[in-house]
Write a structure and sequence with these properties.
mainly alpha; single chain; extended
């Protein structure tokens, strides 16, 4: 299991790889401002997707992002 420090570091890297610095900071502010419950949010995230489709999408992502 990774430590909190490693998870935070990798999370910030993910943000900076996909957003510029202003957008990354806005994202953090938006998440902190809202009463955001990740567990509840993710329940509906892939609600209409078959497991096979989700697996294929994950495998494709892994192949392209390494």
């Amino acid at each position: 299991m990774r430590t909190d420090a490693v998870i935070k570091k990798e999370g910030f890297q993910a943000l900076s790889n996909n957003l510029d610095i202003v957008e990354a900071e806005r994202f953090i502010v938006l998440i902190k401002r809202e009463n955001f419950d990740y567990t509840e949010w993710r329940k509906d995230l892939w609600e209409n997707m078959k497991v096979e489709d989700l697996s294929a999408k994950a495998m494709n992502h892994y192949k392209t992002k390494g």
